[in-house]
Design a protein that fits this description.
heterodimer; A: mainly alpha; two-stranded antiparallel ribbon; B: mainly alpha
């Protein structure tokens, strides 16, 4: 507890001194936003209070990784939504709708449709077979050391890439919203997430995510209602004024739409060819089902029934949220684009960039006070997502690598928790460091890469281990590694990295999204090398399938099912 | 995991219970049907975007600016939610009842 108090005071002192610094150095485009800062401090105070409360309740590994397993389906549904709805999707998708129209909706649909499939094929299986990480499920039958190592690699790759993208986005967003220097913003986010995860474990992380989800859904609802109210809740009038708004707009993106004679209510240039369209769809859909921080949430509920309910509520909240971002994006065309107050006429974008569409909408619909609220919500949103990521990464290190791969599953619980807390600290420091290093880099590809790795390395071995009797350790290792390596290689050689980041002239790999190829490689690799595997170990693994299936279907023997 | 011989016997008993077979058959066929339905809805949408993107721009009626793409997109989001609702309703009722009976019978 002493450590916690010390860290909190360090944070408060650190952030207030950087606030003062920001006041001196504030540039005209990044004014201090007092309401936002006050509301943000309230959020931080409440969540640190929860962390303090959670720390006292975090005694066992089960408390630390799975919040004691006592989260209800409704709470977990909200927490999943809080874990999944990132600031990037709130700002990015509404900005895409704002700039390009219908294309934004295509992305949201891709992000949503993975959820029903997770429910039908994975939710209760995860709950019945696993304890703390998705590697528990894969190593139910397969050999512990290699499988845990591979799963931990898949987890850490996904988590670090996702974290860097979130940290860079956080730094830029907070600089614009709060007038804080980039580095201080990244450090504050990093320190807070370390505090939540290291001291409060899954209990604190869950509540941070729940509070964030409620705040974000409330805020976005209010903005969307404001947008519809502007046209007297007449949808025809709403879309007509959006169409006319684009024609009258002075923004570069809108001029391009008009010049290209494009229909903002139909698919535009987002998806250029059928292979890219299908590949992107696969990465979004199956990537969701392979994100370690999302999968981990299924271990926080008591049984299969609550696991199913979690997805039902999560799908509802997330779907509702995406419909709101669609309304907010077009609302911004009507209410934000024509108002010189929000427009940078020289650059031909919104002030702070087009990603600020939803933020300006908050001001246009609710004034300064509401702008402050939404800014604080955006900050809270980032914190909830990065905490979930950090916890997933820390669990992979402590539970998969340390406790199972190194110690063979026999380890003192307290020592395992200590390792996990320490890992959270290290991951946090790495995230802060890389977040600062990547400030000027284009990190947009990193979320896509994280989804593609989740879809091509984590998802294939997970789904095959649940459903395919013949999967063996050798097959999973080769297939999973093929998925991981091919994804990274193809993304590096594609336009997004090879040209946009490394500055080469032409991409060596023609498609932006590798999932259609890398997922196929992973599945085919698992299949061929499992089939060819006639070792005695492979036979033993196949023989365990019946026991796994019984537990999977009935939950008999499932971890923690009877503890509460 | 199941080195314990008693575990092996328990698994054997459960597998021989006709209700277990019933549960497995019904649940997996229901789950895969719904999964296929979601995949077909989504990939049909993706294929239209890939091959006939303009068709989604067709207006819902003369004189309206709203394209059919908008209700279709919103409809996919709503259908995803409805499908999860349909599954949870049956699984948390019928399937969980079956599971409970299996557990009681094999105690």
């Amino acid at each position: 507890m002493k450590q916690l108090t010390a860290l909190v005071s360090a944070l408060v002192v650190g952030s207030s001194s950087s606030l003062l610094w920001a006041a001196d150095a504030a540039k005209p485009e990044s004014k201090m936003n007092v309401t936002a800062i006050v509301m943000f401090f309230i959020f931080v105070a409440v969540t640190l209070g929860i962390t303090y409360w959670a720390a006292a309740r975090t005694k066992s590994t089960k408390d630390f990784y799975a919040a004691g397993g006592g989260i209800t389906g409704f709470q977990n549904g909200l927490a999943i939504a809080g874990d999944y709805m990132s600031a990037a999707s709130f700002l990015g998708i509404s900005a895409m709708v704002f700039a390009k129209g219908y294309d934004g909706l295509i992305y949201s649909i891709g992000f949503l449709v993975g959820w029903p499939v997770i429910l039908f094929l994975m939710a209760e299986q995860l709950r019945n077979l696993g304890r703390y990480t998705f590697a528990d499920i894969v190593s139910f039958r397969l050999s512990r050391v290699p499988i845990r190592t591979l799963s931990a690699m898949g987890t850490l790759f996904t988590v670090i890439l996702y974290l860097i993208a979130q940290m860079v986005g956080a730094g830029q967003l907070i600089r614009t919203l709060f007038g804080l220097p980039y580095e201080s913003a990244v450090v504050i986010v990093g320190v807070l997430m370390i505090l939540y995860v290291a001291f409060g474990g899954m209990i604190a992380t869950t509540w941070v995510q729940i509070i964030k989800a409620v705040l974000l859904l409330t805020g976005a609802t209010f903005i969307a209602l404001g947008a519809l109210n502007h046209v007297g809740f007449n949808l025809e009038a709403f879309f007509r004024s959006a169409m006319e708004g684009v024609k009258a707009s002075g923004l570069a993106d809108h001029k391009a739409v008009v010049a290209g004679n494009k229909d903002i209510f139909a698919p535009g240039g987002l998806v250029s060819d059928p292979v890219s369209a299908i590949s992107l769809g696969m990465a979004l859909m199956f990537g969701t089902a392979g994100l370690p921080h999302i999968l981990m949430r299924f271990f926080t509920v008591a049984n299969a029934k609550e696991a199913r309910k979690s997805v039902f509520f999560a799908t509802g909240f997330i779907g509702y949220f995406y419909i709101l971002t669609f309304i907010i994006g077009f609302g911004a065309v009507v209410m934000v684009a024509p108002n010189p107050q929000y427009v940078d006429a020289i650059k031909g974008t919104l002030n702070g960039g087009n990603n600020m569409a939803a933020i300006h909408m908050a001001h246009a619909t609710g004034g300064d006070l509401f702008l402050g609220f939404i800014s604080a919500v955006a900050f809270a949103t980032i914190l909830a997502v990065v905490s979930g990521l950090t916890l997933a990464g820390a669990s992979a290190v402590s539970h998969d690598i340390y406790a199972n791969a190194i110690c063979g599953g026999k380890v003192d619980e307290r020592k395992e928790i200590r390792i996990s807390k320490f890992s959270a600290l290290i991951i946090g420091i790495i995230a802060i460091f890389l977040g600062i290093q990547f400030e000027k880099q284009n990190v947009a590809f990193m979320v896509g890469l994280a989804f593609a790795i989740a879809a091509s390395a984590n998802f294939p071995i997970l789904i095959l281990s649940i459903y395919w009797k013949n999967l063996t350790t050798r097959g999973a290792l080769i297939g999973g590694s093929l998925g991981l390596i091919s994804t990274v290689t193809m993304v590096v050689l594609s336009k997004t990295v090879w040209v946009d980041v490394l500055g080469n002239k032409a991409p060596l790999f023609p498609y932006k999204d590798p999932a259609i190829f890398s997922m196929t490689l992973a599945f085919v690799g698992c299949w061929i090398f499992s089939k060819l595997d006639s070792s005695r170990q492979a036979q033993a693994e196949r023989n365990l399938f019946d026991a796994q299936a019984v537990r999977c279907e009935t939950g008999i023997g499932a971890a923690g099912a009877s503890n509460h | 995991m199941n080195n314990d011989p008693q575990d092996g016997q328990l698994i054997d008993r459960i597998q021989k219970n006709p209700k277990y077979t019933e549960l497995v058959t019904k649940r997996s066929s229901f789950a895969w049907k719904l999964s296929w339905l979601m995949l077909i809805i989504y990939y049909a949408f993706i294929l239209v975007i890939a091959f006939a993107p303009k068709s989604l721009g067709t207006k819902i009626s003369d004189g309206s600016v709203i394209s059919i793409g908008i209700p279709i997109g919103a409809g996919i989001i709503v259908s995803a939610f409805l499908l999860t609702g349909i599954y949870v309703r049956r699984a948390n009722g019928e399937f969980d009842d079956l599971t409970r009976q299996i557990k009681e019978e094999t105690k």
